[in-house]
Write a structure and sequence with these properties.
Radius of gyration: 14 Å
Strand content: 35-45%
Strand order of the largest sheet: 3-2-5-4
CATH architecture: Sandwich
Low-confidence stretches: none
Mean pLDDT: 89
CATH topology: Hypothetical Protein Aq_1857, Chain: A
Distance between the termini: 16 Å
CATH superfamily: HesB-like domain
CATH class: Mainly Beta
Number of domains: 1
Oligomer: single chain
Structural class: alpha/beta
Number of helices: 2
Number of strands: 9
Helix content: 10-25%
Largest sheet: 4 strands, mixed
């Protein structure tokens, strides 16, 4: 099982953690949301719980709780800029069966 960052995403996360001054890495999970079922939740990992799964990509840790991991297993997270004003994480999750029309929620 794994969740990986692209080099671009890892560089972005490392820069943001350095600006922030603290953090173990990037915590990724899901929550029930939207018309399709789940939405991604991304935050700083200020600590790693004993049952968390930790993956490292390009020197940056990705922290995932054991309940969420089956939904995210095999996912690659990129950081993209679509134009000068829009940027953000892009999730390539092989477990997604359906996405809502706006792209905010998904089902597995």
């Amino acid at each position: 099982m794994s969740v990986q960052l692209t080099e671009t995403a890892a560089r972005h996360v490392a820069t943001e953690i350095a600006k922030r001054g603290s953090g173990e890495g990037l915590r990724v999970s899901t929550k029930k949301s939207g018309c399709t079922g789940f939405a991604y939740v991304v935050d700083y990992a200020d600590h790693v719980d004993a049952d968390d799964h930790v993956f490292e990509s390009h020197g940056v840790k990705v922290v995932v709780d054991p309940v969420t991991l089956p939904q995210l297993d095999g996912m690659v997270i990129d950081f993209v800029r679509t134009n000068l004003l829009n940027e953000g994480f892009e999730f390539r999750n092989p477990n997604v069966k359906e996405m809502c029309g706006c792209g905010e929620s998904f089902s597995v």
